Protein backbone atom coordinates (compact mmCIF):
# COMPACT_ATOMS: atom_id res chain seq x y z
CA UNK A 1 0.00 0.00 0.00
CA UNK A 2 1.46 3.42 -0.91
CA UNK A 3 2.30 5.63 2.09
CA UNK A 4 -0.04 8.52 2.89
CA UNK A 5 1.15 11.89 1.56
CA UNK A 6 -1.73 13.89 3.03
CA UNK A 7 -4.57 13.16 5.44
CA UNK A 8 -6.61 10.26 4.08
CA UNK A 9 -9.26 7.88 5.31
CA UNK A 10 -8.63 4.50 3.73
CA UNK A 11 -11.72 2.31 3.54
CA UNK A 12 -11.17 -1.40 3.08
CA UNK A 13 -14.17 -3.03 1.44
CA UNK A 14 -12.70 -6.50 2.00
CA UNK A 15 -12.84 -5.85 5.73
CA UNK A 16 -16.45 -4.72 5.30
CA UNK A 17 -17.28 -8.00 3.60
CA UNK A 18 -15.52 -9.92 6.36
CA UNK A 19 -17.58 -8.12 9.05
CA UNK A 20 -20.81 -8.68 7.16
CA UNK A 21 -20.08 -12.38 6.83
CA UNK A 22 -19.13 -12.66 10.50
CA UNK A 23 -22.36 -10.98 11.60
CA UNK A 24 -24.41 -13.10 9.17
CA UNK A 25 -22.84 -16.22 10.67
CA UNK A 26 -24.57 -15.31 13.96
CA UNK A 27 -28.02 -15.38 12.34
CA UNK A 28 -30.42 -18.07 11.24
CA UNK A 29 -30.24 -18.50 7.48
CA UNK A 30 -33.59 -16.79 6.86
CA UNK A 31 -33.02 -13.76 9.12
CA UNK A 32 -32.89 -10.59 7.05
CA UNK A 33 -30.05 -8.09 7.35
CA UNK A 34 -30.43 -4.32 7.40
CA UNK A 35 -27.26 -2.25 7.01
CA UNK A 36 -27.34 1.07 8.84
CA UNK A 37 -25.56 3.59 6.62
CA UNK A 38 -26.64 6.84 8.31
CA UNK A 39 -24.18 9.69 8.83
CA UNK A 40 -22.09 8.84 5.73
CA UNK A 41 -22.00 5.19 6.84
CA UNK A 42 -20.60 6.26 10.21
CA UNK A 43 -18.18 8.73 8.68
CA UNK A 44 -16.84 6.36 6.04
CA UNK A 45 -18.53 6.82 2.67
CA UNK A 46 -22.19 5.84 2.51
CA UNK A 47 -22.37 5.74 -1.27
CA UNK A 48 -19.39 3.44 -1.83
CA UNK A 49 -20.39 1.26 1.09
CA UNK A 50 -24.06 0.94 0.19
CA UNK A 51 -23.20 0.23 -3.45
CA UNK A 52 -20.77 -2.49 -2.35
CA UNK A 53 -23.14 -4.03 0.22
CA UNK A 54 -25.97 -4.03 -2.28
CA UNK A 55 -24.17 -6.77 -4.19
CA UNK A 56 -23.81 -8.90 -1.08
CA UNK A 57 -26.81 -10.50 0.54
CA UNK A 58 -28.29 -7.30 2.06
CA UNK A 59 -32.04 -6.91 2.39
CA UNK A 60 -32.43 -3.35 3.61
CA UNK A 61 -30.63 -0.10 4.24
CA UNK A 62 -31.40 2.49 6.90
CA UNK A 63 -30.48 6.14 7.14
CA UNK A 64 -31.40 8.64 9.83
CA UNK A 65 -32.77 11.43 7.63
CA UNK A 66 -34.51 11.55 4.27
CA UNK A 67 -31.78 13.51 2.50
CA UNK A 68 -29.30 10.76 3.25
CA UNK A 69 -31.62 8.30 1.52
CA UNK A 70 -32.01 10.61 -1.47
CA UNK A 71 -28.20 10.72 -1.84
CA UNK A 72 -28.10 6.91 -1.87
CA UNK A 73 -30.74 6.77 -4.61
CA UNK A 74 -28.66 9.27 -6.61
CA UNK A 75 -25.69 6.93 -6.17
CA UNK A 76 -27.63 4.03 -7.65
CA UNK A 77 -28.84 2.21 -4.55
CA UNK A 78 -32.06 0.38 -5.41
CA UNK A 79 -32.73 -1.78 -2.31
CA UNK A 80 -35.36 -0.57 0.19
CA UNK A 81 -34.22 2.29 2.42
CA UNK A 82 -35.78 2.88 5.84
CA UNK A 83 -35.68 6.46 7.13
CA UNK A 84 -35.25 6.10 10.88
CA UNK A 85 -36.10 9.68 11.81
CA UNK A 86 -38.88 10.95 9.60
CA UNK A 87 -39.75 14.65 9.73
CA UNK A 88 -42.89 16.00 8.07
CA UNK A 89 -40.96 18.64 6.14
CA UNK A 90 -39.23 15.81 4.22
CA UNK A 91 -42.29 13.80 3.12
CA UNK A 92 -41.83 14.90 -0.49
CA UNK A 93 -38.17 13.75 -0.46
CA UNK A 94 -39.36 10.42 0.96
CA UNK A 95 -41.90 9.92 -1.79
CA UNK A 96 -39.75 11.18 -4.68
CA UNK A 97 -37.00 8.75 -3.71
CA UNK A 98 -39.15 5.75 -2.74
CA UNK A 99 -37.85 5.90 0.81
CA UNK A 100 -39.72 4.12 3.58
CA UNK A 101 -40.53 6.26 6.61
CA UNK A 102 -40.48 5.30 10.26
CA UNK A 103 -43.77 6.52 11.74
CA UNK A 104 -43.14 6.87 15.44
CA UNK A 105 -45.97 8.99 16.84
CA UNK A 106 -49.60 9.95 16.14
CA UNK A 107 -48.64 13.27 14.58
CA UNK A 108 -46.27 11.81 12.00
CA UNK A 109 -48.59 8.83 11.33
CA UNK A 110 -51.61 11.01 10.64
CA UNK A 111 -49.66 13.55 8.63
CA UNK A 112 -48.06 10.86 6.49
CA UNK A 113 -51.41 9.15 5.85
CA UNK A 114 -52.95 12.50 4.82
CA UNK A 115 -49.93 13.21 2.59
CA UNK A 116 -50.00 9.84 0.81
CA UNK A 117 -53.78 10.06 0.37
CA UNK A 118 -53.40 13.48 -1.23
CA UNK A 119 -50.70 11.99 -3.50
CA UNK A 120 -53.01 9.10 -4.48
CA UNK A 121 -50.68 6.45 -3.12
CA UNK A 122 -51.70 2.85 -2.58
CA UNK A 123 -50.09 0.69 0.13
CA UNK A 124 -47.03 2.93 0.41
CA UNK A 125 -44.55 1.00 2.64
CA UNK A 126 -44.16 2.39 6.15
CA UNK A 127 -42.54 1.18 9.36
CA UNK A 128 -43.97 1.59 12.86
CA UNK A 129 -41.61 2.07 15.76
CA UNK A 130 -42.43 1.22 19.37
CA UNK A 131 -40.69 2.53 22.43
CA UNK A 132 -39.86 -0.32 24.81
CA UNK A 133 -37.55 1.54 27.16
CA UNK A 134 -35.06 3.72 25.30
CA UNK A 135 -37.54 6.60 25.60
CA UNK A 136 -36.30 8.30 22.46
CA UNK A 137 -38.71 7.71 19.53
CA UNK A 138 -41.69 5.39 19.25
CA UNK A 139 -45.30 4.66 20.05
CA UNK A 140 -46.26 3.14 23.37
CA UNK A 141 -47.54 -0.39 23.88
CA UNK A 142 -51.09 0.87 24.48
CA UNK A 143 -51.16 2.83 21.20
CA UNK A 144 -51.62 -0.39 19.18
CA UNK A 145 -55.43 -0.11 18.86
CA UNK A 146 -55.20 3.55 17.87
CA UNK A 147 -52.56 2.88 15.16
CA UNK A 148 -54.45 -0.08 13.76
CA UNK A 149 -57.70 1.91 13.59
CA UNK A 150 -55.93 4.65 11.62
CA UNK A 151 -54.31 2.13 9.28
CA UNK A 152 -57.55 0.23 8.66
CA UNK A 153 -59.21 3.47 7.61
CA UNK A 154 -56.83 4.02 4.67
CA UNK A 155 -55.34 2.09 1.76
CA UNK A 156 -52.67 4.73 1.14
CA UNK A 157 -50.07 3.05 3.36
CA UNK A 158 -49.17 -0.49 4.40
CA UNK A 159 -46.99 -1.55 7.30
CA UNK A 160 -43.84 -3.26 6.09
CA UNK A 161 -42.28 -3.67 9.51
CA UNK A 162 -42.64 -3.14 13.24
CA UNK A 163 -39.54 -2.33 15.21
CA UNK A 164 -38.05 -1.17 18.46
CA UNK A 165 -34.55 -0.32 19.68
CA UNK A 166 -32.57 -1.71 22.60
CA UNK A 167 -31.19 0.72 25.15
CA UNK A 168 -28.23 -1.26 26.48
CA UNK A 169 -27.54 -4.28 24.28
CA UNK A 170 -23.78 -3.92 24.84
CA UNK A 171 -24.10 -3.78 28.63
CA UNK A 172 -24.54 -7.22 30.16
CA UNK A 173 -25.22 -5.65 33.57
CA UNK A 174 -28.50 -4.49 32.04
CA UNK A 175 -29.49 -7.97 30.89
CA UNK A 176 -32.76 -8.03 32.86
CA UNK A 177 -33.82 -4.69 31.43
CA UNK A 178 -32.97 -5.83 27.89
CA UNK A 179 -34.91 -9.08 28.29
CA UNK A 180 -37.93 -7.06 29.44
CA UNK A 181 -37.60 -4.87 26.34
CA UNK A 182 -37.54 -7.98 24.15
CA UNK A 183 -40.59 -9.50 25.87
CA UNK A 184 -42.47 -6.24 25.60
CA UNK A 185 -41.74 -5.94 21.87
CA UNK A 186 -42.86 -9.52 21.33
CA UNK A 187 -46.18 -8.82 22.98
CA UNK A 188 -46.71 -5.58 21.04
CA UNK A 189 -45.91 -7.36 17.77
CA UNK A 190 -48.36 -10.17 18.50
CA UNK A 191 -51.16 -7.76 19.40
CA UNK A 192 -50.47 -5.59 16.39
CA UNK A 193 -50.36 -8.44 13.87
CA UNK A 194 -53.55 -9.96 15.26
CA UNK A 195 -55.37 -6.63 15.09
CA UNK A 196 -54.18 -5.66 11.59
CA UNK A 197 -54.57 -9.15 10.13
CA UNK A 198 -51.15 -9.58 8.53
CA UNK A 199 -47.59 -10.16 9.68
CA UNK A 200 -45.11 -7.28 9.19
CA UNK A 201 -41.33 -7.88 9.40
CA UNK A 202 -40.18 -7.62 13.04
CA UNK A 203 -36.80 -6.18 14.01
CA UNK A 204 -35.28 -4.94 17.20
CA UNK A 205 -31.58 -5.37 17.54
CA UNK A 206 -28.44 -3.40 16.66
CA UNK A 207 -24.92 -4.85 16.42
CA UNK A 208 -24.42 -5.64 20.10
CA UNK A 209 -27.82 -7.30 20.25
CA UNK A 210 -26.91 -9.50 17.27
CA UNK A 211 -23.96 -10.72 19.30
CA UNK A 212 -25.49 -10.79 22.79
CA UNK A 213 -29.21 -11.50 22.32
CA UNK A 214 -30.13 -14.17 19.75
CA UNK A 215 -33.67 -14.01 21.16
CA UNK A 216 -33.90 -10.45 19.81
CA UNK A 217 -33.10 -11.32 16.19
CA UNK A 218 -36.77 -11.74 15.15
CA UNK A 219 -37.11 -11.49 11.31
CA UNK A 220 -34.36 -8.95 10.66
CA UNK A 221 -31.39 -7.34 12.42
CA UNK A 222 -29.94 -3.86 12.00
CA UNK A 223 -26.21 -3.38 12.07
CA UNK A 224 -24.07 -0.28 11.80
CA UNK A 225 -20.97 -0.28 13.99
CA UNK A 226 -20.33 -4.01 13.53
CA UNK A 227 -20.13 -3.65 9.75
CA UNK A 228 -17.54 -0.94 10.26
CA UNK A 229 -15.50 -3.21 12.50
CA UNK A 230 -16.36 -2.56 16.15
CA UNK A 231 -18.18 -4.92 18.46
CA UNK A 232 -18.47 -2.84 21.64
CA UNK A 233 -16.57 -5.56 23.46
CA UNK A 234 -12.98 -6.68 23.51
CA UNK A 235 -13.89 -10.20 22.49
CA UNK A 236 -16.05 -9.23 19.52
CA UNK A 237 -13.59 -6.62 18.36
CA UNK A 238 -11.06 -9.40 17.83
CA UNK A 239 -13.38 -11.05 15.27
CA UNK A 240 -14.29 -7.84 13.48
CA UNK A 241 -11.94 -5.75 11.34
CA UNK A 242 -12.11 -1.95 11.40
CA UNK A 243 -12.68 -0.93 7.80
CA UNK A 244 -11.22 2.57 8.09
CA UNK A 245 -7.68 3.79 8.65
CA UNK A 246 -6.98 7.47 9.23
CA UNK A 247 -3.47 8.37 8.13
CA UNK A 248 -1.47 11.51 7.58
CA UNK A 249 2.12 12.76 7.25
CA UNK A 250 4.56 14.89 9.20
CA UNK A 251 4.49 18.41 7.74
CA UNK A 252 7.21 19.93 9.91
CA UNK A 253 9.45 19.04 12.85
CA UNK A 254 10.41 21.55 15.58
CA UNK A 255 13.00 21.37 18.33
CA UNK A 256 12.01 23.36 21.39
CA UNK A 257 13.84 24.12 24.58
CA UNK A 258 12.78 24.02 28.20
CA UNK A 259 10.12 26.66 28.99
CA UNK A 260 9.02 27.15 25.38
CA UNK A 261 5.40 26.52 24.53
CA UNK A 262 3.53 24.85 21.67
CA UNK A 263 0.31 26.02 20.04
CA UNK A 264 -2.56 28.32 20.94
CA UNK A 265 -2.86 29.70 24.44
CA UNK A 266 0.55 28.18 25.13
CA UNK A 267 -1.30 25.13 26.48
CA UNK A 268 1.80 22.94 26.28
CA UNK A 269 5.00 24.06 27.97
CA UNK A 270 8.10 21.95 27.73
CA UNK A 271 9.77 21.06 31.00
CA UNK A 272 12.34 18.82 29.36
CA UNK A 273 15.67 20.18 28.22
CA UNK A 274 14.87 19.30 24.67
CA UNK A 275 11.54 18.40 23.06
CA UNK A 276 11.00 17.41 19.46
CA UNK A 277 7.54 18.04 18.03
CA UNK A 278 5.85 17.23 14.73
CA UNK A 279 3.09 19.27 13.15
CA UNK A 280 0.43 17.20 11.35
CA UNK A 281 -2.05 18.39 8.72
CA UNK A 282 -5.31 17.57 10.47
CA UNK A 283 -7.27 19.25 13.23
CA UNK A 284 -10.70 19.69 14.71
CA UNK A 285 -12.14 20.66 11.32
CA UNK A 286 -11.15 17.17 10.16
CA UNK A 287 -12.82 15.49 13.12
CA UNK A 288 -10.05 15.34 15.70
CA UNK A 289 -11.93 17.12 18.45
CA UNK A 290 -10.26 19.35 21.02
CA UNK A 291 -10.92 16.62 23.59
CA UNK A 292 -7.91 14.75 22.16
CA UNK A 293 -5.58 17.64 22.95
CA UNK A 294 -3.23 17.98 25.87
CA UNK A 295 -2.13 14.37 26.02
CA UNK A 296 -5.58 12.70 25.85
CA UNK A 297 -4.95 11.45 22.33
CA UNK A 298 -1.95 10.08 20.48
CA UNK A 299 -0.83 9.04 17.02
CA UNK A 300 1.53 6.30 15.88
CA UNK A 301 4.77 7.06 14.04
CA UNK A 302 6.97 4.14 13.02
CA UNK A 303 5.16 1.95 15.54
CA UNK A 304 5.64 4.35 18.46
CA UNK A 305 3.06 6.44 20.31
CA UNK A 306 3.38 10.20 19.96
CA UNK A 307 1.00 12.10 22.29
CA UNK A 308 -0.92 15.12 21.04
CA UNK A 309 0.42 18.17 22.87
CA UNK A 310 -1.29 21.48 23.50
CA UNK A 311 -4.64 22.41 22.03
CA UNK A 312 -5.93 20.83 18.84
CA UNK A 313 -6.08 23.57 16.16
CA UNK A 314 -8.64 23.78 13.38
CA UNK A 315 -6.31 22.40 10.72
CA UNK A 316 -3.35 21.00 12.63
CA UNK A 317 -2.21 19.07 15.66
CA UNK A 318 1.23 18.95 17.22
CA UNK A 319 2.59 15.73 18.68
CA UNK A 320 5.57 14.96 20.86
CA UNK A 321 8.09 12.89 18.90
CA UNK A 322 10.98 13.10 21.33
CA UNK A 323 12.82 9.79 21.04
CA UNK A 324 11.07 8.73 17.84
CA UNK A 325 13.32 8.38 14.82
CA UNK A 326 11.32 10.14 12.08
CA UNK A 327 11.52 12.92 9.51
CA UNK A 328 9.30 15.36 7.65
CA UNK A 329 7.15 13.50 5.09
CA UNK A 330 6.97 10.29 7.13
CA UNK A 331 3.63 8.53 7.52
CA UNK A 332 1.52 8.91 10.68
CA UNK A 333 -1.32 6.63 11.75
CA UNK A 334 -4.17 8.10 13.80
CA UNK A 335 -6.11 4.85 13.79
CA UNK A 336 -6.27 1.68 11.74
CA UNK A 337 -7.29 -1.87 12.29
CA UNK A 338 -3.90 -3.16 13.36
CA UNK A 339 -1.54 -0.77 15.10
CA UNK A 340 -4.09 1.20 17.05
CA UNK A 341 -7.86 1.35 16.94
CA UNK A 342 -10.38 4.18 16.87
CA UNK A 343 -11.93 2.53 19.94
CA UNK A 344 -8.68 2.92 21.94
CA UNK A 345 -8.20 6.53 20.88
CA UNK A 346 -11.83 7.40 21.64
CA UNK A 347 -11.84 5.69 25.03
CA UNK A 348 -8.66 7.48 26.06
CA UNK A 349 -10.49 10.77 25.68
CA UNK A 350 -13.69 9.60 27.36
CA UNK A 351 -15.81 9.02 24.26
CA UNK A 352 -16.77 6.08 22.01
CA UNK A 353 -15.70 4.81 18.60
CA UNK A 354 -19.07 5.88 17.11
CA UNK A 355 -18.38 9.53 17.86
CA UNK A 356 -14.80 9.54 16.62
CA UNK A 357 -15.48 7.79 13.30
CA UNK A 358 -18.64 9.72 12.47
CA UNK A 359 -16.76 12.98 13.05
CA UNK A 360 -14.14 12.49 10.34
CA UNK A 361 -15.15 15.41 8.17
CA UNK A 362 -15.84 15.52 4.48
CA UNK A 363 -12.59 17.48 3.98
CA UNK A 364 -10.61 14.27 4.52
CA UNK A 365 -10.02 12.43 1.27
CA UNK A 366 -11.56 8.95 1.17
CA UNK A 367 -9.50 6.22 -0.52
CA UNK A 368 -11.36 3.01 -1.29
CA UNK A 369 -9.40 -0.26 -1.12
CA UNK A 370 -10.82 -3.34 -2.79
CA UNK A 371 -9.07 -6.43 -4.06
C1 LIG B 1 -27.96 3.70 14.61
C2 LIG B 1 -29.01 2.68 14.81
C3 LIG B 1 -28.72 1.30 14.67
C4 LIG B 1 -27.32 0.76 14.47
O1 LIG B 1 -26.70 0.53 15.73
P1 LIG B 1 -25.24 -0.11 15.84
O2 LIG B 1 -24.96 -0.16 17.29
O3 LIG B 1 -24.33 0.83 15.12
O4 LIG B 1 -25.28 -1.44 15.18
C5 LIG B 1 -29.78 0.41 14.71
N1 LIG B 1 -31.04 0.84 14.94
C6 LIG B 1 -31.35 2.14 15.11
C7 LIG B 1 -32.76 2.53 15.38
C8 LIG B 1 -30.35 3.10 15.08
O5 LIG B 1 -30.65 4.39 15.28
TrEMBL record:
Entry annotated with the keyword Isomerase: yes
GO molecular function: alanine racemase activity; pyridoxal phosphate binding
Record: residues binding substrate: 136, 314
Pathway the protein acts in: Amino-acid biosynthesis; D-alanine biosynthesis; D-alanine from L-alanine: step 1/1
Catalytic activity: L-alanine = D-alanine
Enzyme class: isomerase
An annotated GO BP: D-alanine biosynthetic process
Function statement: Catalyzes the interconversion of L-alanine and D-alanine. May also act on other amino acids.
Protein name: Alanine racemase
Lineage: Bacteria, Pseudomonadati, Bacteroidota, Flavobacteriia, Flavobacteriales
Amino acid sequence: MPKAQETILEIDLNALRHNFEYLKSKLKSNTKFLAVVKAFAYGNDAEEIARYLQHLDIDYFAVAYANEGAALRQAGVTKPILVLHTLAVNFDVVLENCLEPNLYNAKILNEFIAFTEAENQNEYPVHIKFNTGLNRLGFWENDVDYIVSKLKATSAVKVKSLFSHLAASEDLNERDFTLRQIASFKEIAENFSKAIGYQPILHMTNTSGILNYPEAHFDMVRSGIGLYGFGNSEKESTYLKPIASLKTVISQIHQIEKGESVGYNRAYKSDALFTKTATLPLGHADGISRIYGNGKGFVIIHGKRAPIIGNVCMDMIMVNITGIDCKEGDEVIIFDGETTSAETLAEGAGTISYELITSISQRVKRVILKS
